[in-house]
Amino acid sequence: MKVLFIGGTGLISSACTALAVRKGFDLYLLNRSRSTKYPVPPGANLLQGDVHGSEDDLMRLFEAHQFDAVVDWIAYTPEDVERDIRLFSGKVRQFVFISSASAYQKPPSHYLITEETPLSNPYWQYSRNKIACEQRLMQAYRQQGFPVTIIRPSLTYGPSQIPLSVNSWQHPYTVIDRMRQGKEVIIPGDGTSLWVLTWHEDFAVGFLGLLGREDALGEAFHITSDEVLTWNQIYQQAANALGIEPRFIHIPSDLIARYDPEAVGSLIGDKANSVVFDNSKIRRFVPEFKPLTTWAEGVRRALAWHEADPARQTIDADANRLWDRLIADYRKVFPA
Fold first, then answer.
1. Is the separation of the CB atoms in 135 and 118 below 8 Å?
2. pLDDT of residue 39
3. Bridge-partner residues for 29, per DSSP?
């Protein structure tokens, strides 16, 4: 199968790239440059180009290829998918759009999320953009037969990410460093809301099983772990992996968002809500999808990756200052 990944060297996509090569896919990656964190593996073909550049240049780049499937890992706005529709209409058998499970209704009307759960997120522009992309692509599917499949990952991580609910996404070792220093670490709310963390290599099994599937056209899928944990458990298992006794402080999510505007989307519009995913649909389509990586194992892998090289242990000083200020103000009202 000849497949094009637009992107393919990110946190989630790198695992899919590696598995596709192992499975013998004729895989091409469109990238502006080579990634050092997630290098292109031997066996994959690099097409150097900018998907946000000239469409004429892209068409010339693609004209020598007939792809069975194209996956756009880096489409975030309706403008991005309009470009993809222009580029690939009539030229590809399957186009896969990477959406987000954060697009599901917030707050959810029911804790169990299926692919039929309404799409609505008034708190996060990122999610609303993904919803708009889905709507445009499904319109193209209905009106002109554009062969789209929609994938909605939830919080998916790999060795380079430590996906705690109040952390720095760009510098994920920051909260680990706080734990090691004995500083208080924020858990949103009372820590009892439910969440799901998915190891990127588990995700890749379900994802690749959908490529080249005519019966997946016009369909949406989420692909997540079946392990459901509270945020208290998630943080505690990270501390257990470190072998330390942590100092946790529970602070209401809406108060966190008042201090950190970015948390309005990522917390109020996502991680502060209890969600459990029904994965029966992906299992019907891809029976070999059996996520096995627990958070207890995944966080150990992530810590090992960070601690193998001090250069990976970057700290977000701005986030630390914000958390210290929030904790200090909270302690004035609610002393320890």
1. no
2. 86
3. 5, 46
Retrieve residue 313's tokens.
């242990």
Convert the pLDDT of each residue in 104-125 to its tens digit.
999 999 999 999 999 999 999 9
Token pair for residue 138? 């499904």
Query: Token pair for residue 74?
Result: 């880096």
Q: Which of 100, 224, 234, 222 is nearest to 163 (CA)?
A: 234
What's the CA gap between 336 and 334, in Å, rounded? 7
pLDDT-derived band at 304 (thresholds 50, 70, 90) equals: very high
CA distance 146 to 135: 13
- Element at 187 (helix H, strand E): strand 184-188
Q: What is the CA radius of gyration of the chain?
A: 20
Q: Is 5 helix (H, G, I), strand (E, B) or coil?
A: strand
Q: pLDDT of 157-206, one tens digit each?
A: 999 999 999 999 999 999 999 999 999 999 999 999 999 999 999 999 99
Kindly give the residue spans of alpha helices, DSSP state H, lying in 209-260. 231-242, 253-259
Residue type, 265: G
- Tokens coding 203: 């995700």
> What is the rounded CA–CA span in Å between residue 314 and residue 44?
30
**Positive or negative CA dihedral for 316, 318, 320, 322?**
negative
Q: Which residues, at least 6 apart from 297, have a Cβ–Cβ distance to it below 8 Å?
A: none
Return all residues near 120 (Cβ < 8 A) that are at least 6 apart. 104, 105, 106, 131
Give the C-alpha separation, 30 to 113, whole Å: 33
pTM for the model: 0.96
User: Per this entry, what is the length of the chain?
Assistant: 336
Domains and CATH numbers, the chain: 2-156+198-223 (3.40.50.720), 159-196+228-275+295-333 (3.90.25)
DSSP designation for 189: T
Q: At what angle do helices 173-181 and 317-333 cross, to 10 degrees?
A: 50
